[in-house]
Design a protein that fits this description.
Chain lengths: 391, 391
């Protein structure tokens, strides 16, 4: 597995490289080191203990894993371990990529927390930076027992569960990035793995998604974003992107306003096909697509000019973001209603500032109005792209 | 009934007078006119049509009643009519009292709206004033049919309902006032009347409450506020204040944070005792206590000095207000999930600006910390007062 991890790190880094973001010498050395150690680790093969420790060190995670390293070493092929290592890596890569866009002194605050019942998490927040007004990247690895009704809430459809209190395991990474410049969109992503044990054995499934919330519509950005996600999906199942794009538009709806919160992306739940390893590989590709889908947009727009009016509009749209998260988002609700919830980690998704004006309505033929049109009627971004290409 | 209405208007105005707020000549003339017309109306007795029109005119409501005047005239003794006239009057008196504290140019925007299924409302919002950052005072008078599950949500306990789609009527006034100066507390109140018809006949009940959310704790203010509410309750049932004060502390809890949203007040639901008229009189007293409980606090603190730090704290606490309203408040949820909801009227309760900082914790021995202590452990404000008096 170590070889696979090393290869995957390398792939991500080259992916990132392709988007010309992380090209300084330090990263190249890190990249080379990962390949080197991956190769050595593969050669050593059975010397698991030494190998795992080295990989964990080299990964440069934001904090120590939640599960003790000795346990991770012993269970390298267990999906729980694979998922924990994936989310640790995704968290660290994404935090580093965001810090690269910031002023030097703006760094993520790292809080590693544990839960009495089992497990814990690592919450990384960068607040009040020049580029990012509030950026939160959280992982959690929790286990314990839940009543079937609560477990049921964890999945959209799914089979029913049998039993009283069911042992469960959940590991996920989740991030919301609210930039300061209104020309830079907000991104959210979340990738998660569940295991629940009932009388009939262990049920497992993956869920997740990545979606974009611009304040000003830039069609090129939206197409770039969707295209990157489509590439990530296409390598696994050609039907995934279209299905999960629609699911995303449906899910991120502010029902009472009849509008989406952004230009969408992908969203899925209950993925347990075609087998555990392939499902994990798919989720891995999606999670690895976050940086190339988003960081180029930050780089492109972080120094765009804007004024008081654009800032006010951004704050109003952030109010809508709050409405979605607190009223409709299943993850937030599930989190807050879970006993012993670490609410600060759940609510790190809320913007630093938000605004609500009574009866605010953008005037026709303004950029604000153009955004609203897309939020009310989601577009099929990539068909537009194809039509343009053939035109 | 017209005589009773006139007397009630007079009582409120003298109450208000007692607090030395509305003493200009215009109001005195208005007051005198109300008494005069009330007396004349009583003498005329049967000349209902003329009398009602005059009273409606004199009331100086924010807009025309939702129910056609001709229907109100014919149903003067119906509780639905009594309630509609009460909430119209409370809305108008409260809006005028708030405008008196504002700069001359700051006036309420008045939106009268109707609902396809039946009824409508009048939403009054004053936004971005010098004294009030956002003040919303809304009435709604709606009727139609609801599934029993939805009706059940309208009351906390209550009997079960029998039938498929049940005809219902709901009339209420609701207000949230967010002042600009952090030394002035936010107030919320809501008084409502429901009727639901099932196989067994018509069930009716009242609900409501008034609660205060300070940003900086002023014990004298909290005592004044609670004392005013206690007086309003005591005239009807000596047990009400203590019960409804506790209910308020329990209801306005931000569960995931283990804190109340403010220093409480009173809250009740399902009041259908001892009879309809007495229950209405009780609700009337509560609604009439809003101005004397709150306006003196506005007058006292609206010009208090404050700085950037106090404003930031106020914005953080407004974030908590949003959390309560969007996650826990039954009225907001019931409203937003009702088909054809006028969401702008429901969400006028949200502040103009709010803020969320990750892991914000006031330092010990600061005024912010003192507030938090009271929010975590509600005080029995009037026992303190009694202890002081006997000391």
């Amino acid at each position: 597995m170590s070889f696979k991890i090393a290869i995957r790190s390398f792939k991500t880094l080259t992916y990132v490289e392709g988007y010309k973001k992380l090209r300084d010498r330090h990263i190249k050395m890190y990249c080379a080191a990962v390949i080197g150690v991956g190769y050595m680790a593969y050669k050593q093969h059975k010397a698991n203990k030494v190998e795992m420790k080295e990989i964990l060190q080299l990964k440069n995670y934001m904090a120590d894993p939640i599960t003790p390293i000795s346990h991770l070493e012993k269970t390298q092929d267990d999906m729980k371990t694979q998922m924990e290592l994936l989310i640790m890596r995704i968290q660290s890569e994404f935090c580093r990529a965001l810090e690269k866009e910031e002023d030097e002194e703006a760094k993520f605050q790292v809080d590693r927390w544990t839960r009495r019942e089992g497990g814990g998490g690592i919450t990384c927040v960068l607040q009040d930076g020049r580029v990012f007004e509030k950026a939160g990247v959280n992982i959690s690895v929790v286990s314990g027992k839940l009543p079937p009704a609560a477990v049921q809430q964890m999945r959209t459809r799914g089979k029913s569960f049998d039993g009283q209190e069911l042992p469960f395991f959940a590991a996920g990474v989740s991030a919301v990035i609210h930039p300061r410049n209104p020309m830079v969109p907000t991104i959210h992503f979340n990738y998660r793995y569940f295991e629940v044990q009932d009388k009939n054995g262990v049920q497992w499934w993956f869920g997740g998604g990545t979606d974009l919330t611009p304040y000003y519509l830039n069609e090129e950005d939206a197409v770039h974003f969707h295209l990157t996600l489509k590439h990530a999906c296409d390598g696994h199942d050609k039907s995934y992107y279209a299905r999960f794009k629609k699911w995303c538009d449906d899910y991120f709806t502010i029902t009472h306003r009849g509008e989406r919160r952004g230009v969408g992306g992908i969203f899925f739940d209950d993925v347990d096909q075609p087998n555990q390893q392939s499902a994990f590989d798919f989720v891995t590709s999606c999670a690895e697509a976050v940086i190339p889908s988003y960081i180029p947009l930050v780089q492109k727009h972080k120094d765009d000019p804007y004024g008081y009016y654009e800032r006010q509009w951004q704050l109003l749209r952030r109010g809508r973001y709050v409405e979605f998260n607190l009223i409709y988002d299943r993850g937030t609700k599930f989190g807050l209603f879970t006993p012993e919830a670490r609410y600060e980690s759940i609510l790190m998704s809320l913007p630093l500032n938000a605004k609500w004006e009574y009866m605010h309505e953008p005037k026709p033929n303004t950029p604000e109005h153009s955004l609203m049109k897309v939020l009310k009627e989601p577009r099929d971004w990539l068909q537009i792209e194809q039509a343009r290409a053939t035109a």
